Amino acid sequence: EGARTFALVPAGREGLFWMQSTEDRGLVFLLADPFHWFPRYEVDVPDHELAVLGRGPQTPGSAPLGVLTIVTLPAAGTAPGGDAATVNLRAPVLLEPETRRGRQLVLRDERWDVRERLALD
Q: Fewer beta carbons under 10 A from the terminal one: N or C of the chain?
């Protein structure tokens, strides 16, 4: 809860990123670009959430809002074909590139699951 500063680093595979705390070396999240893995994914971000990120109205030339989702990896030692990696499509992480602020948004849209299978094979 106390970590507030993170670095976003490509994970070496298209569509995956590490979000590493700059305050606690042991705190790191694997994030996925949901649009890369789930082309029909949609997120409707309410205006008040955009305001919290310091984002004004979209204007030509403004950087797009980043949307990533948290990946849960199977437990170490899981047998091949057992548990799969999953992604939380119900609560994406929003990243505002101009203000460098981020926030997790819990969606009310029931089309998206908190444990959607992510085929990393």
A: N
* Closest residue by Cα to residue 74 from 64, 65, 83: 83
As given in the structure block, the two tokens for residue 7 are 């670095």
Alpha-carbon gap, residue 99 to 80, rounded angstroms: 42
How confident is the model over 60-115, as pLDDT tens digits? Answer: 677 889 999 999 998 765 555 567 899 999 999 999 998 999 999 999 999 999 99
pTM of the entire predicted model: 0.86
Q: How far is CA 43 from CA 13, 79, 86, 96, in A?
A: 23, 34, 18, 15
